[in-house]
Amino acid sequence: MHVRGPGGLAQAPTLVGVSTGSHARPPAGPGETPDTPRAGLPARVLQALRRDRGGDTPEGEGGGRRPRSPWRVGTPLMVLLSGSLFAVSAVNSEGTDLRAGRYTDLASLVQAEAEAYEELRARVEDLTGQVNDLSAQVGSRDVQRVQARVEELRDPSGLTPREGEGVRIVLSDSPLQAEDTTQPLKFLIVHQQDIQAVVNAMWRGGASAVTVQGQRIVSTTGIKCEANSVTLQGVPYPQPYVIEAVGDPEVLAASVDGDPYLSFYRQQSLTEDIQIGWEMSVEEEVEAPAYDGLLDLSYAEPLA
C-alpha cells in the first residue's frame, strides 16, 4: 500500500501478524520455558522431541521404557554356578584325576589292571604266610588235626603245583573284519562260554590241573567276558587265550573231540567267512602253578 507524504508517494511498512490457528504454538504458561513440550501435541511429536533432547519416552505415551534384559541377571548367575562346580570338583578330587583310568587302548587298560592285581596278590600271599606261621606255633591238638586235614586237601584243591605231559589249546578271534563277511559279528570273537567248554572237556578227560593264561583253575574260578577281553580271577586278559591241561594227552584229546559244542566251534574255524582261531597240540611238559588267589567265599544267608 502507498501513502502520500511530504516528499510524495512512499510505500507504507508491512505489518506481519502471528496466526493463532491450529498450527501456532500457544504462549508459554507458568513454569514453562519455550523449549518445554506442551500438552496437547501429538504423541509422535512428543516422542520425537524427547529423543532429540536425550530424554526417555514416559510410560503410557506411545511405548514405555526398554524392558530389562534377562541376561543382565542370568549371566552373573551362570558364572557363579560354574565357579561353584569348579570348586566342588577341586575339593572332591583331592588333587587326583576325577576320571581316572582313561587309556588310549585296551592293551594299556589290561596291563594296568594286571599290575594292580599282582600287587594285591603279593600282599595276600604275604599275609597268608604270616597266618600259617602263627598257626604252626599253636600247640593245640585240635588245631594240628585241622592243619593235617588242610594239607591233605591242598593238592586236589589246586593249591600245589603240577607238571607233566598234557594238551595245549589256543583260542583266538577271527582275523576278518566286519566288512569282510556277512556272518554275525558274535561268530568272529572268542566268548567266555568257548573257554569254559574247553576247560570242562579237559576236566572230563581226567586232567589233574588246568590253566588259562597261566592261571590255575579251581572249583571257584569264574571266567567272565568284559568288552574285548576275558576276566579271570579279577584280571582281564586279551586274546589269544591259551588253555593247558596236565594229564593223558590221548584221553584229553578224545574228550575235546567228542564235545558237541567244541565240534561246532572247530567247524566255524574252518569256515572261510568266519575263521575263528583254534589250535590244539600235545605237549610233553605242561606246568600248572599252584592257585594263589583268594579262598574266601561270599554267600547269601536266609533271613530268620
Automatic annotation (TrEMBL):
Key words, A-Z: Coiled coil
Pfam family, one: DUF881
Coiled-coil parts of chain: 110-137
Gene Ontology cellular component list: plasma membrane
UniProt keyword Protein biosynthesis present: no
UniProt cross-references to InterPro entries, sorted A to Z: DUF881 (IPR010273)
Location of region: Disordered: 1-72
Alphabetical list of PANTHER family matching this protein: CONSERVED MEMBRANE PROTEIN-RELATED, UPF0749 PROTEIN RV1825
Protein name: Unannotated protein
Organism expressing this protein natively: freshwater metagenome
